[in-house]
Amino acid sequence: MSLSAPRIKPRFDRKPAWLKVPLPGGEGYRRLKGMTERLGLNTVCQSARCPNVGECWKGERATMTIMVLGDECTRRCRFCAVKTVLSAPPPDVDEPARVGQAVAELGLGYVVITSVDRDDLPDGGAGHYAACVREVRERAPNTVVETLIPDYRGSDLSTLVAAAPHVLAHNVEVVPRLQRKIRDPRCSYERSLETLRTAKDLRPDLFTKSALMVGLGETHAELLDGMARLRDAGVDFLTMGQYLRPTPKHAPVIEYVEPARFAELKAAGEALGFLYVAAAPLVRSSYKAAEFFAERLVRARLGAREAVLPPAYDPSQSLPRGAGR
Model pTM? Predict the structure, then answer.
């Protein structure tokens, strides 16, 4: 089957009804917003303008994605609302402790920690990122930790994996043909697959996860091909959602994909052997349903060995080189 792209004009009309969400608010939202402001933390929920923030930040099962290493990224992907710079301020040495404190205060069953790309740092920020994970593992030992990481390789990836997250996510974002058009030129599908493969090699019991956006002009065949490549790399969890244009300066939406097609993609992913596929218009990489499923799997796997989640590290050992810098 040909993977050639369809000639579709960008969509400038209003979003369809299935993409409309209520404005965030309520006691839970105000509590989490106040805590992040008090502790000086960044979240993808706010920085990336996630449409699900109102849903994820309410109720007893609130979830959030904490973004470390600042809120300025050194890469310029055409889909992302996070601010971009050539060189960002040095990492905040107190941030790991504040991240650990936040997760402990919230009593989260599952937390996602991500970071901006920091190509301006010698280790890409991996040491500081790992320190944040270690603080969470020490202060909230019963919290399942997912890290949504940049395309680390080599010793930088080893540093992050050594901090012992339970789920490691790295997003390929779009199908291979659209990589250079949508992502920063330093990114590539193969580089991302290498990150995911190597993480599994470093720790075979690690669950891995990735995400694809739709609505950017990809074909159905290209999506199936991209999904198959992720399974070949050993990826366990997959999320798929509709791309929404943050501002007129970002890549345009080519198509609003109907919910029925997402159901077809979910079925196709399950047939490929993913442990879990979340596919719907408002699904994002950090998505409550996927996180709850991942939490159950992690706890089931750990339950066969230990009653509680194991400690991530020996506190008497020093942090990896570059941590906190």
Answer: 0.82
